[in-house]
Amino acid sequence: MMIKAHWIRKAHRSIGLMFSITVLMASGSGLIHLWMSRSQPAPPPLAARASLSHIDVDAITVSAVDVMKLIKKQRSSALAKEIHLRQISGQPWYQVFLHGEQKATYVNGVTGEVNDAMDEQYAREIALGALGTEAIEQRAYLTQYNSEYIAIFRILPVYRFDSNDAMGRRVYVSTLTGSVTRATDDQKQWEADLFSNFHKWQFISHKNLRDCLLGCTTLGSFFVSILGIWLFFITGKSKRARIGS
């Protein structure tokens, strides 16, 4: 029994040392995540909406049927997937998502004007409402996730707008949902990067390799814990046996 305890103790020490760095990384970044959740409260949902002014439905002279007729003059095979009514630049606009097209087509509900460029204008108004400043700049239109706007945010495509202030505040805007999908700044992003790299190993770009390594280290830590519990019971029995004798 003592021989078995000796080898278990040796394995526990060796493997434990091997995985101690990854355990420190995971636990340390877990504390960072706790700090982030305490120091970065979620904003109220309405703070992320573009406009709180009402839509003057009495001013609308164009129906949804008319909207599709106007669009089909430019795209004869157009099929609507979703139709929303948005207030943009003080006027009601139909936001029409067509099958096979990523960006929406916009039709003015008063004049019948078809204007695809209103998507960016709508996104800008959402960003202005969220950032509270006129000095904003569109930095990107994302159709894929990246290191800052990662897959957990779920929604694509999105626009990125920066305030260019001292804090480096920026928002990601979806015109599909009519809201900000992510708001961050330089300090928040530094904390988020720290957590992503130390807890989720985002510095490894290949997802399958990253998941494999994370799985191996987690399994190794689990195995070390089992060895420690096993060693506790073995040495406990040995001590009780010596005391009894």
Short description:
This protein has 245 residues and is of the alpha+beta class.
Number of helices: 5
- Percent range for β-strand residues: 15-25%
Number of strands: 7
Q: Which structural class is indicated by helix and strand composition?
A: alpha+beta
Instruction: State the distance separating the first and last CA atoms.
Output: 16 Å
Count of the domains: 2
Helix-strand topology string: HHEEEHEEEEHH
- Poorly predicted tracts of residues: 46-50
What does the overall shape look like? Answer: elongated
Mean pLDDT: 82
* Computed CA radius of gyration, to the nearest angstrom: 28 Å
CATH architecture of the largest domain: Roll
CATH topology of the largest domain: Nuclear Transport Factor 2, Chain: A
**Sheet with the most strands?**
4 strands, antiparallel
CATH class of the largest domain: Alpha Beta
Strand order of the largest sheet: 4-5-6-7
Write a structural description.
The protein is elongated. It has a 4-stranded antiparallel beta sheet with strand order 4-5-6-7. Strands 1-2-3 form a 3-stranded antiparallel beta sheet, with helices on both faces. Strand 5 (158-162) and strand 6 form a beta hairpin. The chain has 245 residues and is of the alpha+beta class. Helix 1 (2-39) runs antiparallel to helix 4 and helix 1 (2-39) packs across helix 5 (207-244). It has helices at residues 2-39, 64-74, 118-131, 186-199, 207-244; strands at residues 80-88, 91-98, 105-108, 137-142, 158-162, 170-174, 179-184.
